Amino acid sequence: MDYALHLAVLVLIWATLGLSQGLISGYLGILAIHQAAAWGIGAYTAALLNRLWGLPLGVTLIPGAVVAGSALFAITALIGRGRRDDQVIASLCVQVVVVALLVNLTSITGGPLGIAGIEWGGPGDQRARVLASLGAAAGLLAATAGLYVLLSRTRLPREWLVMRDDRAFAESIGVDAGGARSLATFLAAASAGAAGTIFAHYATFIEPSTFGLAESVAILAIATVGRAPNVGGVLVAALVIVLAPEVLRNIGLGADVAANVRQGLFGLLLIVAIFRLRR
Questions:
Q1: pTM of the predicted model, to two decimals?
Q2: DSSP-derived 3-state class of residue 200
Q3: Neighbouring residues of 38: CB distance < 8 A, sequence distance ≥ 6
Q4: Could you read off the pLDDT of 34-77 as tens digits, one per residue?
Q5: 42: CB partners within 8 A, 6+ apart
Q6: What is the largest CA-CA distance in the chain?
Q7: More confident position, 257 or 15
Q8: What is the Cβ-side half-sphere exposure of residue 275, based on CA atoms within 13 angstroms?
Q9: DSSP label at 32?
Q10: Cys staple from 39: which of 166, 183, 192, 267, with CB 3.0 to 4.6 Å?
Q11: Among 269, 178, 257, 261, which Cα is nearest to 216's?
């Protein structure tokens, strides 16, 4: 039962990441590959706040979201007027640079060894921690889905979709292309950053490779294959991503082989994502 709850927490976190990615790849049609960077920024923000001042999950959630959203907002504001292909390359660079900083700023992030001993701020019972994390992850997924509902009541999604289909026409009718991308990126990164805070307090240990390029590819695949903002589709896609390594291990494949097969699965899903975004 505890193991099933553990997997459920991970599925909900990955589903939230995929749903947040849909704000960029779905509405704007951009193959952004930096969502794991936002996830990592949120996780490290929460970890540092917890280690320095002992702040619990309930307090670190908002700072983690704001720092992640603001960091990617500032970066995309500089590249928001580039061509779509340029933005794809820029998002890849953002992902690589963030991970490099997490690895090399050893005095702050702990470098490759990461940060251990993160407390979740509640009773020491492991089951209570899992259940609290499960509730927080479910609440965040619901809040991210609710964000889509709130956006649907404004003109922003329509502007984003027009910009996705014909950027020149969108700009001719007054749509700020750079501002639209920056806002969508902020909202997506803030949601991913909040997921990072939950993950950090739940796992109690984080290190840079958890938030690498492969994870960004997996998040993009969840969003496109799951057809975000379709919550059910995103949950199924997240379930596949989380359970794939477990299934591979249970059928007798070694850890190295399972990891290689998982990377191959991510590659196939990325190809599917590219074709879906270009349709």
A1: 0.91
A2: helix
A3: 68, 69, 71, 72, 188, 189, 190, 192, 193, 196
A4: 999 999 999 999 999 999 999 999 899 999 999 999 999 988 77
A5: 64, 65, 67, 68, 192, 193, 194, 195, 196, 197, 200
A6: 59
A7: 15
A8: 6
A9: -
A10: 192
A11: 269
- Both tokens assigned to 68: 């992640």
The tokens describing 82, both together, are 């580039």
Instruction: List, for residues 151-165, the tens digit of each pLDDT value.
Output: 888 888 887 777 777
Which tokens hold the place of 175? 């749509």
Question: Which amino acid belongs to residue 170?
Answer: A
Q: At which residue do the structure tokens 């603001």 appear?
A: 70
Instruction: Compute CA distances 251 → 2, 8, 100, 258, whole Å.
Output: 21, 21, 35, 10
Helix axes 177-203, 57-79, angle to 10 degrees: 150
Structural tokens at position 94: 């953002």
Let me know how long the chain is.
Answer: 279
Look-up: residue for tokens 């990617």?
72
Amino acid at 72: L
Residue type, 97: V
Q: What was the pLDDT predicted at 179?
A: 73
